[in-house]
Rhodanese-like domain-containing protein
Amino acid sequence: MKWKAKASIALLLCSSVTAAGFMLFSGDDSGLAKVHDGIESQFTEVSHIDGDGLSALNQENTILFDVREAPEFSVSHLKGAIHVDPGMSEQDFIQQYADLSKGKTAIFYCSVGQRSSDLANRVQKALISSGAKAAYNLEGGIFKWHNESRPLFTKGTERTSYVHPYNPIWGRLVKDQENTRY
């Protein structure tokens, strides 16, 4: 299954060249929107929520899952997010987080939404069966959140303006290149 996701990303990268010869990775949200469209078509059973929708939710009834690698999470994350290994099995996820999610809306995010949509797709039915209200993927991931100048945190409640760019190619979707850190 993972090879299909990687093949989809590779196809998206190869097909993202415009007539002018520039890649969609231009640091504006049109590139993120195109990536998100591809994610939505790949994960048709996953619901998505944008930054405004997430901000409007009651924080006490929301649980955030950051589905990135540990070095990405250590640079910055959304306030109160729980770091989750992107390759975590459905069984391990439910065993560790079902009780914490009871009565809450679960939000999954990663850099752009690929890894988080994959995990949400694998665990959402079991999570909701275990008592979660709903499960969503954050549209555009932490990159869009950062591009919209929304708050990011590191080490508890310490605010930061930095975001991990994942790699030099995907990092081009971040508008403020001065605030990327590996």
In short: Residues 10-23 have pLDDT under 50 and may be disordered.
